[in-house]
UniProtKB/TrEMBL annotation:
Residues 34-491 form the Aldehyde dehydrogenase domain. The keyword Protein transport does not apply. SUPFAM superfamilies: ALDH-like. Signal peptide: none annotated. InterPro entries: Ald_DH/histidinol_DH, Ald_DH_C, Ald_DH_CS_CYS, Ald_DH_N, Aldehyde_DH_dom. CDD domains: ALDH_GABALDH-PuuC. Keywords: Oxidoreductase. Gene3D superfamilies: Aldehyde Dehydrogenase, Chain A, domain 1, Aldehyde Dehydrogenase, Chain A, domain 2. This is Aldehyde dehydrogenase.
């Protein structure tokens, strides 16, 4: 029997998200009762009230996290026990898939099909993967002389402050929580004020899964209030930050002004997607570039926002992308067939339209799109936009737009392609399209980026590290390498 499609609008009408803080296993209001209304970018409807966490709330959350860490209720459990709890946590996320997906879509505007089929499963898989990994990581014995034994062990850093952005709230949260909790840390998570609800719900599910109270606390609020208080807190041992390069810079200042806590920054990007004339399949290259650029309304740190195309094939490439654009026309995010949803808020809409205007003013050619869409809904939508004739020194090529704007920059030869790709303050990802493996490999090696794709862009897996060169950040999320951020190495000499 075919199942009836879910009526997401009816479900949305019934949803009453709880925006209170979660500290020491309990929901509570902000110390001074402060709160703000959260509206949905889909249609402007009021979604709920969110506690406006401030320094006293952060103090309470950090104190709870510290107490939980110090008494060993989580850190001292055997890895196999932590594994069981995290596995249950991952299962609970999957069980709550529809509720979490709906919350994510209402909160930040992405299409429901992706919240349900990408974001929720990716968050669950991340936690399940770290759960599986935790009892398979061994410590080391150094190759020293015969009269002593030097043990090199990993210990949790202690209290981790996790500060995440609004574009993938659950996945970004899971990328911090997975390795931090698996290695025995306590966490205080500060979600973005623009998309706070799923993080709060995740913390409830973690408690239901058996995570002891105090180990995972959530303080919603604004960056300059709750975020700053957390990053400045003298009892926080490490900050796992994902967000803009501008705020990442602040994280380093806060650490230097407080306790020199470890700061791991995962920041912005302006990734180059390079198409050489010997690329085997221009149609697939165009499809991949458009799909990756317009996915999540272009609100992805790793979006291929600078597409460098050899001048001999650029006209054909541009035509192909332009022909694909209608497929990504924005629509109702609660309709299961919608490919592109709403931008997160009005300020993001204004920012994107301003970059589009800057491209026109600086002499780039808007081939398709370039306008606001679906104004009657009360939400924030922009057409999938394609610019040709972009120069790498234009604002739209240098700065992160964070919207559905694909910029084509033409190049003459391999050396110029490499120079243009590397001529950016960012270095998150890149892609090289060429039939010849020697060229692909040569160019991939020359690119200053944390991830380089060859003849594709969509492969992704929790098993590989994710992070950037240059001002795209330091440290790596995902994979076993993420353990480096949340553990201290200790050497213990034993006389034998
Ligand atoms: P943002 O820097 O404005 O905010 C990120 C988080 O930091 C939010 O929780 C915010 O409240 C908080 N914050 C803001 N100002 C603060 C301050 N002064 N002190 C402490 N906390 C503060 O970024 P955003 O607009 O939420 O997210 C978009 C950015 O995130 C883009 O630049 C994108 O490239 C980046 N991003 C990077 C990755 C990655 O893995 N490299 C992944 C996703 C997003």
């Amino acid at each position: 029997m075919p199942q009836n499609p879910i009526d997401w609008h009816a479900r949305a009408a019934d949803l009453q998200p709880d925006g209170r803080l979660l500290i020491d296993g309990r929901r509570c209001d902000a110390a001074d009762g402060a709160s703000f209304d959260k509206h949905s970018p889909i249609d402007g409807r009021r979604l709920g009230v969110v506690a406006r966490g401030m320094a006293p709330d952060v103090d309470r959350a950090v104190a709870a996290a510290r107490a939980a860490f110090d008494d060993g209720r989580w850190a001292h459990q055997p890895p196999a026990a932590r594994k069981k709890v995290l596995q249950r946590f991952a299962e609970k996320i999957l069980t709550a898939r529809e509720e979490l997906g709906l919350l994510e879509t209402l909160d930040m505007g992405k299409p429901i099909r992706y919240s349900i089929h990408v974001d929720v499963p990716a968050a669950a898989r991340c936690l399940a993967w770290y759960a599986e990994a935790v009892d398979k990581v061994y410590d080391e014995i150094a190759p020293t002389g015969p009269n002593a034994l030097a043990l090199i062990t990993r210990e949790p850093v202690g209290v981790v402050g996790a500060i995440v952005p609004w574009n993938y709230p659950m996945i970004m949260g899971a990328w911090k929580l997975g390795p931090a909790l698996a290695t025995g840390n306590s966490v205080v998570l500060k979600p973005s004020e623009k998309s706070p609800f799923t993080a709060l719900r995740l913390a409830e599910l973690a408690l239901e899964a058996g995570l002891p109270p105090g180990v995972f606390n959530v303080v919603p609020g604004y960056g300059h209030e709750a975020g700053e208080a957390l990053a400045l807190h003298a009892d926080v041992d490490a900050i796992g930050f994902t967000g803009s390069t501008r705020t990442g810079r602040r994280m380093l200042e806060y650490a230097s002004r407080s306790n020199l806590k470890r700061v791991y920054n995962e920041l912005g990007g302006k990734s180059a997607f390079i198409v050489f004339p010997d690329a085997d399949d221009l149609e697939r290259a165009a499809n991949t570039a458009a799909g990756a650029m317009y996915f999540n309304q272009g609100e992805s740190c790793n979006a291929p926002s600078r597409v460098l195309v050899h001048e001999s094939i650029a006209d054909e490439f541009v035509q192909r992308v332009a022909a694909l654009a209608p497929r990504f026309r924005p629509g109702d995010p609660l309709d299961a067939s919608t490919e592109m949803g709403a931008l997160v808020d009005e300020s993001q809409l204004r920012t994107v339209l301003d970059y589009i205007e800057s491209g026109r003013t600086e002499g780039a050619r808007c081939v398709t799109g370039g306008n606001q869409a679906l104004q009657h809904t009360g939400g924030y939508y922009v057409e999938p936009t394609l610019f040709d004739g972009v120069r790498n020194d234009m604002r739209m090529a240098r700065e992160e737009i964070f919207g559905p704007v694909l910029c084509v920059i033409r190049f003459k030869d391999e050396a110029e392609a490499i120079r243009l790709a590397n001529d950016s303050p960012y270095g998150l990802q890149a892609s090289v399209w060429s039939h010849h493996l020697d060229r692909a490999h040569r160019v991939a090696r020359a690119l200053r980026a944390g991830t380089v794709h060859v003849n594709q862009y969509d492969e992704d897996d929790i098993t590989v590290p994710f992070g950037g060169y240059k001002q795209s950040g330091n440290g790596r999320d995902k994979s076993l390498h993420a353990f480096d951020k949340y553990t201290e190495l200790k050497t213990t000499w034993l006389r034998i």
